[in-house]
Write a sequence for this structure.
């Protein structure tokens, strides 16, 4: 009987933990959906709680400040990008083919509601942001991305700084293209811009600057 | 006496017209300043009127809807860009030097509060926007920009569509770099990214794709 009770305690704890985890994820989902449909303006604690179907105190429990909630979106955005480029197809074939697939997969990520919400958060909080925290976050992200890129392009001889610049250049171009497609939804020849981006990436991977 | 009165009427009309013009400009100034300091969230009609030191009905008189006010920011952004590249120094020297100056001047524009406010407006209104109006605006802008670029690079043999793609690629890269410097204010080697952008522009101007 003691054993059974103890088991129950364990399973209850487990269930609570799982629920806690999913509440946190639901809050992030709600925040992204809210920003996508109604803009950053709409992302009040009350509405996030409503959309996530949790109480406002649950939101407060998981995210002591709004800045923490926004950081969670940035972190998830980063995690999803790493997951997207964790693709065996990126590990074989010619350099050009791998670079092309890398750009195409990245572009898919940049078109997601999550990435658009991330840009909107960055723009909206640019004067109020706690810069140090976000910078630490991006330093860590930069290291992880560089490791992944070294796995994908093992022939690349660039040092860390030059490799980081290749990644940043590619990221910068795709971010700009994302903003441009919002201004100009009829933008023609997206494929052409992605090919330019791929070619530039190949040139940079081959030639240290 | 009649003459004098008529003169007065003219000068009063002129003064009112000037005031009207400046109220409109003051409202746009206020909107940009408000977005810069407090974010898009803060851009209510009431606060814009306060910051512009005009009445709310004056705001309403000049901008029947918020969308009109946002379009005015985009239009001013475009006009300032054209003014910035209306620079005699862009009309002489080697192609590489002209491209370099074009990128440097453009970058100055992209770093302005006006351009940052423009990106923030685009991101914040992406689901609610009256797309047709903005697209017409950008079609018109594209034509003006292409004319200016033909004056700067008369040796360029590209057709309109290819030339538009060169401009868009350059714009896309600089927009992305702008967003990146907001995420990463310590971003090193901005000069290096601008040189990459210039080199890509030179290659595109010389080689039809």
């Amino acid at each position: 009987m003691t054993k059974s009770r103890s088991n129950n305690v364990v399973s209850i704890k487990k269930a609570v933990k799982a629920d806690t985890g999913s509440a946190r994820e639901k809050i992030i989902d709600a925040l992204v959906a809210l920003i996508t449909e109604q803009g950053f303006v709409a992302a009040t604690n009350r509405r996030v709680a409503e959309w996530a179907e949790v109480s406002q105190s649950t939101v407060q429990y998981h995210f002591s400040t709004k800045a923490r909630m926004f950081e969670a979106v940035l972190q998830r955005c980063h995690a999803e990008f790493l997951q997207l480029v964790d693709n065996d197809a990126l590990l074989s074939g010619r350099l050009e083919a791998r670079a092309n697939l890398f750009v195409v997969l990245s572009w898919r990520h940049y078109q997601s509601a999550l990435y658009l919400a991330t840009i909107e958060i960055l723009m909206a909080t640019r004067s109020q942001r706690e810069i140090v925290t976000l910078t630490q976050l991006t330093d860590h992200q930069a290291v992880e991305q560089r490791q992944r890129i070294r796995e994908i392009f093992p022939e690349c001889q660039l040092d860390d700084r030059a490799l980081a610049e290749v990644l940043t250049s590619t990221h910068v171009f795709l971010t700009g293209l994302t903003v441009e497609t919002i201004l100009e939804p009829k933008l023609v020849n997206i494929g052409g811009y992605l090919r330019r981006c791929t070619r530039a990436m190949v040139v940079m991977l081959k030639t240290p600057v």
